[in-house]
Design a protein that fits this description.
With about 70 residues, the protein is mainly alpha-helical. Helix content is about 50%, strand content about 10%.
């Protein structure tokens, strides 16, 4: 399993941190990124660990708040 880089965790958020902030499950986050509903991660290292900036989180929050909700 890939390990995150300590230096990058000071600058970026990891996927689990982003999921908690957005209130999404792993599947929901991955699906929205794959379907281009949410933008791609800010940075992906050589081992495949995804990193997200604060700007990315703000953009994702705005997208999710403006999404059409169907019941």
């Amino acid at each position: 399993m890939p390990n995150r880089k300590l230096q990058l965790t000071f600058q970026y958020l990891t996927a689990p941190q982003v999921r908690r902030r957005l209130g999404l499950s792993r599947f929901q986050l991955d699906a929205r990124i794959e379907r281009a509903i949410l933008p791609p991660p800010t940075f992906v290292d050589t081992t495949g660990v995804r990193y997200f900036s604060e700007q990315w989180v703000r953009t994702a929050q705005a997208i999710l708040q403006n999404a059409i909700v169907t019941v």
